[in-house]
């Protein structure tokens, strides 16, 4: 759930981005998708994961999602849920909305544990066989053909089952995934400044005014810092401006002005300041000075007719 800027150097920018698509989102079943054997990982999950159950007085286990464990709300509970409750929790109870086939249409009911019942967590392997865990709980399709893949049912994952025994579990993915969506410019519209002073999404390397871009990024970083630390600022500077706790003004400006672009693709190879995750959380981030040196090495001494394109990538 994060946007980040990517500079693609050279012709066919989208062809250069293609090796880094997230297959689970794009659905592009191409040469970059690999079959990964995850049998042992799934077996370990089956052996260690737990599942919630309700145990009745006789010791029989029941699924807490059974409709019999949902009742109509009291007037006080209806008020606490609000007019459009949907599904969720309050500090006092949890609730779920659907058509309960009782003639009243779509409505919310309250989860409850009957007297004498006990809510417990038990190992997954006590409720399911390994095959049942894969098919019923994980909803993984099965095949008898150990070479099977690429059909609709097995496009993303599948289990090979022979004579009722699981032979292997395959996850089909692109291990080099960096993006699930992209667009030229996007949130990073006109990030390239050319020597005429115009700002563009795409141009030739000979036309870029790199010193001016550096100067503008420093000014922008200074403005962000001042706004975040203004006496009347009421937002969250750590989220909106990406300011780390205990970070000084000088450190922030350095980090934000060394390169305003997060990643570079050159000759089909991906270079990045760090690993972008959800909610703009970056792991394994490089020192700003190191990233600046790497960035400058990538963009300097390019042939004058080299195409440069800035993309808004999302993951």
Task: Note down, in words, how this protein is organized.
The protein is α+β, with helices and mostly antiparallel strands and 315 residues long. The protein has three domains: 3-26 and 178-314, no CATH class; 34-49 and 121-173, no CATH class; 57-116, no CATH class. It has helices at 13-17, 23-26, 39-48, 75-81, 124-127, 130-137, 210-228, 237-240, 249-257, 288-299, and strands at 3-9, 34-37, 50-55, 61-62, 70-71, 88-89, 94-99, 106-111, 118-123, 142-143, 157-162, 165-173, 181-184, 192-193, 199-200, 202-204, 263-266, 269-272, 275-276, 282-283, 307-314. Strands 1, 13, 16, 17, 18 and 21 form a six-stranded mixed β-sheet that branches. The protein has a four-stranded mixed β-sheet with strand order 2-12-11-10, covered by helices on one side. Strand 14 and strand 15 form a beta hairpin. Helix 7 (210-228) runs antiparallel to helix 9 (249-257). The longest helix has 19 residues, at 210-228. It is extended, with a radius of gyration of 27 Å. The termini are close together.
Helix segment count?
10
Which percent bin holds the helix content? 25-40%
Let me know the number of strands.
21
Q: Which structural class matches the secondary elements? A: alpha+beta
Largest sheet, if any?
A: 6 strands, mixed
Low-confidence stretches: none
What Rg is obtained from the alpha carbons, in whole angstroms?
Answer: 27 Å
The pLDDT mean sits at 90
The dominant shape is: extended
Q: Any idea how many domains? A: 3
